[in-house]
Design a protein that fits this description.
heterotrimer, A mainly alpha, B mainly alpha, C alpha+beta, A: mainly alpha, Cytochrome Bc1 Complex, Chain D, domain 2, two-stranded antiparallel ribbon, 12 helices, 4 strands, C: alpha+beta, Rieske Iron-sulfur Protein, 2 domains, 4-stranded antiparallel sheet, 31% helix
Chain lengths: 281, 592, 360
Amino acid sequence: MRLLSARLSARRRSPFAGLVVLLLGLVLTGGAFALFSPAQAESGQADQSTVAQGRTLFLVGCASCHGKNGEGIVTERGTQYGPPLAGVGAASVDFQVGTGRMPLARPGVQAERKKVLYNPDEIKALAAYVASLGPGPSIPTASQYSISGTDSEAVARGGQFWRTNCTACHNFAAAGGALPGGKYAPSLSGVTPKHMYEAMLTGPQQMPVFSDQVVKPSEKRDIIAYVKRLQSAPNYGGNALGSMGPVTEGMAAWIVGIGACVAFAVWIASHSVRSKKGAKA
Amino acid sequence: MSTTTNGRTAAKAPGNDKLAEAATWLDDRVGLATLAKKQIRKVFPDHWSFMLGEIALWSFVVLLLTGTFLTLWFKPSMTEVTYNGSYDLLRGVKMSEAYESALHLSFDVRGGLLMRQIHHWAANLFIAAMLVHLMRIFLTGAFRKPRELNWVIGSLLLLLGTLEGFTGYSLPDDLLSGTGIRAADGFMLAVPVVGTYVSFFLFGGQFPGDDIIPRLFTAHILLLPGILLALIGAHMLLLVFHKHTQWPGPGRTNDNVVGYPLLPVYTAKAGGFFFIVFGATALMGGLFTINPVWKFGPYDPSQVTAGSQPDWYMGWPDGALRIMPNWETHLWGFTLSWNVFLPIIVLPGVVFTAVLLLPFLEAWITGDKREHHLLQRPRNAPSRTALLVALMTFYGILWEASGNDLIATHFHLNLNYITYFNRIMVFVGPVLAFIITRRWCISLQRADRDRLLHGYESGIIMRSPEGAYAEKHLPISVDEAYTLTARDRVELPPPPGEVDSNGVANRKARGEGLRWRVRNFWFSHDIEKPTRTELEEAHHHAEHELSVRDDGHQHLTESGYTGDYELDGTPADGHQFDGRHDISGDELRKGH
Amino acid sequence: MTTHQEPEPGNDEAVATTAHGTTPAVVGDPIADPGLPPHEPRPTDVDPHAERRAERQVATLFGLSTLFAILFVVSYFVFDVGKNPTVIAGYGASNVALGVTLGLALLLIGIGAIQWARKLMSDVEIVEMRHPASSSEQDRADAVAALDQGISDSGIARRPLLRNSLIGALAALGLPAVVALRDLGPLPRGDLAVTVWKKGMRLVNDVAGTPIKPSDVEIGQLINGEPAVFFEDKPNGEPKFEGTRLNDAKTKAAIIIVRMKPEDITPPKGRENWGVEGILCYSKICTHVGCPISLWEQQTHHLLCPCHQSTFDLADGGKVIFGPAARSLPQLPIMVDSEGYLVAQSDFTEPVGPSYWERG
């Protein structure tokens, strides 16, 4: 991130600065909303030293886009360069930074999940600092998202919530799906229960919010339990082919099925070896 | 007759009296020997592409076997039950009996999941093999007289196979199959005038109702397979009657068929191939998941999943549906949904009719009324090959359009741009494909002609004294030359006149004129095979260059020799290695 | 260079005779037919060792197949399915083991049979002559004569009354055939135009049935909703809707509730008071072919159908902005009841779901 901001500030003086800022701004306008959207006002109280540490990290790693006080940066053309962070809450920071989406590596239609750049303490400090800017959803506690105690009835119920609210975008097996304009709902493989909970709570980027008042915390936990159980369930029928539905199945039928049968047909109809040298094939 | 059979059977299988007795018993009652004597040693030619239809045939047998197994447990009922089976992620969930029995088959019947998966893989393979088979028939001209009717039967099989597939994958009543039926209901509603009635009659009221699964089940296991079986029987009978086509070659003419007898070679090969197709589908069923219904959950009209696609063979009309502009007309209180009606009802009908009529269309263009039993290489019918590749491109673009969402996510592309791209390519692509394929075929024809006239590239590079390099061409074998020339010449008749010989205006002239223009377009760029004179000239030219001096070295003749190729007092032109001379012991060959 | 046209016992067609074809497609032009090349023996034809080796090879394949068939049976009984399925390396052991053993048992028979044919059965090609598909002129004439005789004997040509009345009777039989299918379904009587929604019915969260207050809904929120009646019971304790009746009703009544910043919304004329504080409610059923649709992008306010990618702008009256759907997503007018919960102002004001002829 230090590298990125250094490069950006260097370019601001270059003739391309305007263009870069414009591009970043256009792209981040969308991203702005995710972090901008107010969520439940549950501000967690963190001690002042953590907040101070968070502020230090923020100034180095985030302020170049989000402003020195998290007030957001608006470009000269009026587009959002980085959205204001007051009120997004600690949960949002924990999700965005904890899944590597923030800091952005490069402009794109959508922030991608990637390598996490901060350690857990730093993320906690950043979250504490942003939470201190304005009330927002706090990081859920382990008791909220822990799925260890869920029974099979709750899991099955979680599956019904899952199919009603989530599969339309994330696909039946949580393998992800397409959205308009090059955006996508990501695959949920390897996503921790905490991050799933935070995503539902805060509605990052294009994802809608599923507030605790409507999808109750216990229902959220059931959804997570269902997804985790689904992901860890054995592949009863052999390789799952990416769990993407009939498209990959059709490809397999053509490439493996027709491919193998045609290969056998070629072998069946080929002429076997002749004992005389120079025989015609 | 019985004595004949008796005698032959006894003679053929001495020491196997029991078998002979049984054969006699049977023949006394059904008189099979007359038929058997001709068919037992019936000749089938050997070529890998002749087995594509067999893949379809054997997949169908696999479908019958596995499908029968599935019916023993599957309950085609939409009655609501609460799941209490082995799959705990759905325990307690309300679902239809059909879906519950599909889960029961998958989790509680040993081998049930395997049979479900083999059945589904075999279905995908069945239709894929029919399509590949159809393309082979078209590309090689095997649909020409007298086989047009078999082409029609084959096309009907493809259509019915597709319907059979749709009715099959709609049965488990999982979220994906239900979404497919929901869309199908939308298609029916889009039919002008009668659409709503069709939908209500099919579903027994409003969608989804509780009739559709039992009705689809009856169509899937009784009605459609019955028709399929009858048509496959007719297809096979016509194949036996016409005798299989074959590739031209030495001794392989339009009047014979050269190959191996039904018993034993073809029985072993075709029978063995059945086991291979069954084995391949069984391996796929064991190793690859297909249609994991338990992951989709039961059908609920308020749920949907990303990646809701039909099976591959319904993909192309679905792709047309996705790229269709949103046209709808409201007139006099009625609604006409062009956006659904055109791509999903009209387009498949038009395409299917066109496929059905292809043999007759080509016969009309070429005016050819002869029987054809020799296949054509695709390059030797450039326009026909180009037409098929254009159709394949059309199909392929629509096919790809039906996977636009997965293409977007997996290749990081913009869903909307893919759709715009496809809207253009579906028209431009086939035209480009036609032009490119035709030019490609013509180039290949030209290469064949060069090969006939100038021989093949030997790979021997000759260096002339002044340092120029040239590759030697050697004449091809007589067998190959015969095979390359075993095709028709195209004779284009003169354009029809506006008036006939009596000066009376020809009423059919307009039709004939169109036909002449199409025929001209169809054939005019084809490269003819060389005539006997051209071949002789080319041969003579090669011989001319090959005159041999008394010293045993050959060289360019005085007329063609310009004086610079001298090497050790003899011109070196590479003909030493043209295959017409003994080169044993030649130093230059060493190291090869 | 002789053609291998061995007379086949009992198969007189397989003897070289003169050409039967009507017009040979290929006459030795420009090169004469050199005839079938001579048969060249395979190693197994001339070398007894090779022959025995091939025989052993094929027998081994068949033997292995038997082994796999037995392993199939073993797998069938060894690997459990049901509540505690045997799992090996993350795969359902029963299915994989059964599939692999069955597949190999079958494949090996096939490969063995084909290897037998390739190596050990005679590979001398035989020639069978073709005949034109058509019958001979004599046969045609005889057939026509027989047909004429039959028709003449029946008198159908001479007795037009019989002929016409029979045709009429057969044609009339089509009526029972068609009419018998009448009860396949009821006639559509405007059923597609109405849903269970009515004035004052609460909007509830799907699956749970929780009623919704505007304060529960945040900006950017999506709720997959249903009418409250789906979660209500009749006086006798049975649900008002269940089974296929529930599905029939759900097909038309499913909704999505979204909340946007009020300043982002441009309501169509006449719909200014159809929402509550930026909360809008739309049909969940796509107007294209009826897929449920809930891929909502909270920042762009776009709703995408996963089936055919129709995209609707929920901030702009559900207008179609992309894809094959022609009509806007129907909006359900909502308000707040006396207890503060979101309720419908009325049923949908237009038919939901795919277009149909009578829709208008």
